[in-house]
Amino acid sequence: MNNINPDMPFLSISDAAEMAQMHPQTLRQYDRMGLVKPSRTIGQSRRYSLRNVAQLVEVAKLSAEGVSLNAIKRIVELENQVVGLRAENRELQNIVDRLMASQPGSRVFAVGDAETVILPSGKRPKRSNAVVLWRAK
């Protein structure tokens, strides 16, 4: 059971509605509003993942607490943005970790839009807008 992919779309609208304890028409409305976006089959039928069902339950909970659907949509957008930023942060941290491991005693400077430079201790980057990243020992 540990190999279940929560993002695999396999549930029909009726199955997802039953799991979320909602009417299928509610799921259609949430899809139209962009609150929960299921995948589509070639024939355009909705297919929901377990993550979609969890999102439906969260939307229902917020709605029951009196949060408007427009506010819920904004919350969902912000939560999705946070997930993306965390993934990007992990990726950047992994790059920094690899660079630091490959050059012990060096500091990692990010210069420009996509250039990363490793300099030995005591050296300065050529550009004045560089940001130094380091780890406390």
Description of the structure:
There is one protein chain. By secondary structure, the chain is an alpha+beta fold. The chain has a domain at 1-77: Multidrug-efflux Transporter Regulator, Chain: A, Domain 2, CATH 1.10.1660.10. It contains four helices and five strands. It has helices at 13-20, 24-33, 50-64, 69-102, and strands spanning 39-40, 46-47, 106-111, 115-120, 131-133. A three-stranded antiparallel sheet has the order 4-3-5, with helices on one face. Helix 1 packs across helix 2 and helix 1 (13-20) crosses helix 3. The radius of gyration is 23 Å and the shape is elongated. It starts with 12 loop residues before the first helix and ends with a strand. The mean pLDDT is 81.
Short overview:
The protein has a domain at 1-77: Multidrug-efflux Transporter Regulator, Chain: A, Domain 2.
Q: Looking at CATH, which topology of the domain at 1-77 would you report?
A: Multidrug-efflux Transporter Regulator, Chain: A, Domain 2
Q: H/E series, N to C?
A: HHEEHHEEE
- CATH architectural group of the domain at 1-77: Orthogonal Bundle
Question: Quick one: how many beta strands?
Answer: 5
In terms of topology, how is this protein built?
Layout: H1 13-20, H2 24-33, E1 39-40, E2 46-47, H3 50-64, H4 69-102, E3 106-111, E4 115-120, E5 131-133
Antiparallel strand pairs: 1-2, 3-4, 3-5
Helix pairs in contact: 1-2, 1-3
